[in-house]
């Protein structure tokens, strides 16, 4: 059965905030995804109002804002660009973290752009890209642009070889937008440690040209999994079989085979309502990954592929990937209404399992980016209507608020933990803030 918000709240008091979770994956949502013995997570307590009206946190936690779009200055000059989105923290040695952060910017915006420095620019007409920040805890030590001239860099993902895959959420071309000089809708690899032989932006065309959202790589096989946030028709879930799996920085340029998800007799994942449902999956080769004449998601017979409304975050943890569908609306053509799903993909058994479903009308809606701490705790970034939270679900199916954007209704994005698990870094997109959060993570 599907547990709705009222049922959860009746059984868990005010702690039940709108999630329904599958008991079969309690250990994952307990904050112990990779532990042998699940820990009974009970949340961190109610949020305390921030007198500065920036971030509300549980008692004992604190935050710092260490990067402000348009107000702070990059190393070498230029304002910090805005529209922060996906982000990943790499270990930088000596207790430092190196963050690579996306900027979801489109041509014509008045939000500060990523500076166009020599050797970093793909298309001079575009303001998007990435910046790289070096931090020690909540102290900013360095801040530089690392990719420029790209379009709507939304999410992405880290690689096992410590690079960042930055995704363009578009399929615009010079034919559709005259200001552009190149085709867009690609994935770009950014190496914060300078190991790419050619650091100039190179689109990874074999990974497809479509409205990319996020990426995760199986660290055992090197297979790349990608989400697509699109509509009319809805986007797909893809996997990429690289010619040089786990080949290190630049290896994805060697190409490979792009495939789309197919679940027999399920044409739209939003149709699945029963938690713990497991679906056997197969994969279908993409005829034209570069979408020369037809969008990738429109190149298939409808009976051969499975669509995912608002496919958003994807994150690899242990031996599985967690995939987010932000919401679905029948009025927009989806099979059913929901306010969010999380699926667990098991590559060994080729199955998808529905482990979370948010019913419409709950306090939480629109989960987007997802991350997992070094200890296994899942954090969801909310991009919904009204208030937006960082959310930490528990073992018994109760979601607990971890943080609230107290300054605006802007979404959270790019949540990522330092390697030691002490610091959670996250972005408030519309406000152009990057914050560091720390506290007694073990207390829950």
UniProtKB/TrEMBL annotation:
**InterPro entries this protein is in?**
PhoX, TAT_signal
Q: What is this protein called?
A: Secreted protein
Instruction: State the PROSITE patterns in the record.
Output: TAT
Q: Name one Pfam family in it.
A: PhoX
